[in-house]
Specification:
Distance between the termini: 34 Å
Structural class: alpha/beta
Bound molecules: zinc ion
Oligomer: single chain
Strand order of the largest sheet: 1-4-3-5-2-6
Order of helices and strands: EEHEEHHEHHEHHHHHHH
CATH superfamily of the largest domain: Peptidoglycan recognition protein-like
Low-confidence stretches: none
Number of domains: 2
Number of strands: 6
Shape: elongated
């Protein structure tokens, strides 16, 4: 599975006996997973953090809340550096969990809550819910078809989650389990290009692309300006560096083949021939290396 597809955020509620008692799971690491929904349409993961961080009049909580933009652990689960702690997400007097798993869910399972309804985009929240459950199965060697139970399955007399939230998006519990299994089995295809080293991207921009942009500006060549602007940004994306100073790093993207060829033919080849004419082997090697960095970043064969 692709373990880096989403990020897991960890922001823990304050320890309090009715929400986060601070005690570890009896099993150390999670033995199974309970699929819940929040039962609170429109409320986001952050809304649930606030709610459970302030809850004082009853015992309730779960470790994880997932909406269409984030996966938020509000009580440690063991996916990060902190060991898994108990939460109060299934009543102790139900017996299905004991029969099926040998433990009360609160003592051995993670409660994973799907946020839904209101402005929450179901498909995005669902994808994260599926991925997180697969991530947990992968981490602790569990089988989705035997180690994920819905709250309704454990407490059918009182509960309808997470089936009621899945129904909002036209999904069933069976489909959820199948989707988790598929996520777990998905093979990650390695990228067919090698990122451009940061320094190389910057040097190409400083030495060639920027001067060409300024030359275009000088003669009022708007098409040229746009072209060199895009070329510089494609080099930045091929290195995964920010597009503008101080911005977050750009998503690493394969360099368009035409960009690699253009830089080679416009600047690097002439420089290589000049070095050759001067008998400067070091410079020849340098331009050849630069060209090969570009070829690898564009996924084309080296020369
Ligand atoms: Zn529930």
């Amino acid at each position: 599975m692709d373990k880096t597809k989403y990020t897991i955020e960890r922001r823990y509620i304050t320890k309090r006996s009715n929400t986060r008692p601070g005690t570890c799971l009896k099993t150390g690491t999670p033995a199974f997973f309970v699929a819940h929904d929040s039962g609170n349409p429109g409320a986001t993961a952050d809304n649930h953090f606030d709610y459970f961080n302030g809850l004082t009049d009853r015992s309730a909580s779960a470790q994880v809340f997932i909406d269409d933009t984030k996966i938020l652990e509000i009580i440690p689960t063991g996916t990060g550096p902190d060991p898994a702690e108990k939460a109060w997400h299934v009543l102790y007097n139900v017996t299905t969990d004991n029969d099926q798993f040998g433990y009360d869910a609160n003592d051995a399972a993670l409660g994973v809550e799907l946020c839904y309804g209101g402005k929450i985009t179901f498909s995005e929240a669902y994808k994260r819910f599926v991925w997180y459950l697969a991530y947990c199965c992968d981490r602790w060697g569990k089988n989705p078809s035997t180690h994920i139970a819905s709250h309704k399955q454990l407490d059918p007399a009182r509960k309808r989650d997470c089936e009621q939230a899945l129904a909002v998006g036209g999904k069933t519990l069976k489909e959820l389990i199948n989707d988790v299994a598929a996520e777990l089995a998905a093979t990650v295809t390695p990228p067919d290009f090698v990122p451009l080293p940061d320094g190389i991207a910057q040097a190409l921009i400083d030495n060639y692309v920027s001067p060409a942009w300024f030359a275009a500006q000088k003669v009022g060549d708007e098409v040229g300006k746009t072209h060199f602007h895009n070329l510089a940004n494609n080099l930045r994306m091929a290195a995964g560096i920010p597009l503008t100073p101080g911005a977050p790093a750009a998503t690493l993207t394969k360099l368009p083949k035409s960009n690699a060829q253009e830089i080679i033919f416009r600047w690097l080849s002439p420089a290589w021939f000049k070095a050759k004419a001067a008998g400067d082997k070091t410079a020849m090697q340098h331009y050849n290396n630069l060209a090969n960095h570009l070829r690898r970043a564009a996924g084309i064969p080296e020369e």
